[in-house]
Amino acid sequence: GSEVTDIAILSDEAAQLKMGIVSRHMLPASVILDPELTLSLPKGPTAASGMDALIHAMEAYTSIHATPLTDMWAEHAIALIAPNLRKAWARGEDIQARQAMLTGSFYAGVAFCNAGVTAVHAFAYPIGARYHIPHGLANTLMLLPVFRFNMVGNMERFARLAAMLGENTTGLSPEKAAGRCLDALESLARDLQVPRHLADYGVTPDDVPVLAESVLQVTRLLGNNPRSVSLQDAINIYREAL
Predict the structure, then answer these.
(1) pLDDT band for position 3 (cuts 50, 70, 90)
(2) Residue 116: which domain range?
(3) Is there a domain that residue 21 lies in?
(4) Residue 90 sits in a domain of what CATH number?
(5) pLDDT tens digits for range 168-202
(6) Is 240 within 8 Å of 182 (Cβ atoms)?
């Protein structure tokens, strides 16, 4: 049996939405990045896993625990993923794009294993557990509402993300430049034909209070977030994602 180092179980109805297990035995000693193994991956999983990798890098970059070292890994990850995710999705046999995605995903993993992910992942966990939404899609569904909420916590970082994603931010204020980050991500999700609303998976307004209660228990991730999240904040974010 593996050694469990972090386990969280909720009470009442929210208990059905999340159980997290983290152990050193889940961390690999080495990896092999072979793009040929990904050439037959369908478009849906390519989009979902690619968005997940990009979100890993962006959340590590905006985590309050980011360091110059994790920034380096996150920046390199985004530089590989941002221009290649569309290519890998549009033409799955593009081995150069596949290699870039694998390498970028690895770099993003190094970044978030040291800086942590933030509220996007925290909000994705309850909807993934309850509605069986694939993890990368759950993250993508929550990405824009959470980033819109988080931006005020570190506007300059989100402005830099916009530039990394290819947006022209020259001469813009940090606030307007940060808004370009949301524009870039919305355009990317649209091009990848990723579902955009929780309602597409059967989530209703009546479900929001339980989901909000559940996300507040994901303290391991919310502790990395650039902005504190209250119960009302969580309700508002889930409502926006509907």
Answers:
(1) very low
(2) 42-241
(3) no
(4) 1.20.1090.10
(5) 999 999 999 999 999 999 999 999 999 889 999 99
(6) no
Q: What mean pLDDT comes out for the span 207-214?
A: 96
- Is residue 11 in some structural domain? no
Residue 3 lies in a domain: no
User: Residue 33: inside a domain, yes or no?
Assistant: no
CA dihedral of 167, 172, 178, 179, whole degrees rounded to 10: -80
Q: Express each pLDDT in 118-163 by its tens digit.
A: 999 999 999 998 899 999 999 999 999 999 999 999 999 999 999 9
Number of separate domains in the chain? 1
